[in-house]
Design brief:
Number of helices: 7
Strand content: under 5%
Structural class: mainly alpha
Number of strands: 0
Order of helices and strands: HHHHHHH
């Protein structure tokens, strides 16, 4: 007899279901639910990243910033969170919202991001050209030469 196909662990199923939600508002609720229900999941950082990106798509700046900070609690060198904070805080500063403070904090995140990026390795399965594109765009965010990382960073 053939062994029965193993189902993915419950947390993997819940994560996949959450990230595949087409509606961004529903996706945020599903990801928040996942993060609460599976606090020790190996997918916690990925779920927080997806949540941060979804809040960004919704242009929900307070929740984008709060979630990026939650990502940094899990991984202080998370390049996507550092880029998101750098970009968002510079955007706020450029629009006169807490200009001096937000620019100073954004610059601190940018320096951390550049350090983390210098130590980063290409993810398995990512093409060299896509990796180089993502790194270039992310460096531009950290150095102030870009408005936002592209979809390649997601």
């Amino acid at each position: 007899p053939q062994p029965a196909a193993r189902k993915p662990p419950t947390d993997v199923q819940a994560f996949n279901k959450a990230v595949q939600m087409p509606d961004s508002v529903e996706k945020t609720a599903a990801l928040e639910g996942f993060i609460t229900k599976y606090p020790d999941s190996k997918l916690q950082e990925s779920a927080l990243e997806k949540l941060m990106q979804t809040y960004g798509h919704l242009k929900d700046i307070p929740n984008t910033v709060a979630t990026a900070n939650r990502v940094l609690i899990v991984n202080p060198n998370n390049i996507r969170a550092l880029a998101s904070l750098t970009y968002t805080l510079r955007y706020l500063a450029d629009n006169g919202i807490g200009a001096e403070q937000n620019r100073r904090i954004a610059d601190q995140y940018a320096q951390r991001g550049l350090r983390a990026l210098s130590l980063a390795r290409k993810p398995e399965g990512m093409s060299e050209s896509l990796w180089n594109q993502w790194k270039s765009e992310t460096v531009a965010v950290f150095t102030g030469g870009s408005t936002a990382p592209s979809a390649a960073s997601r």
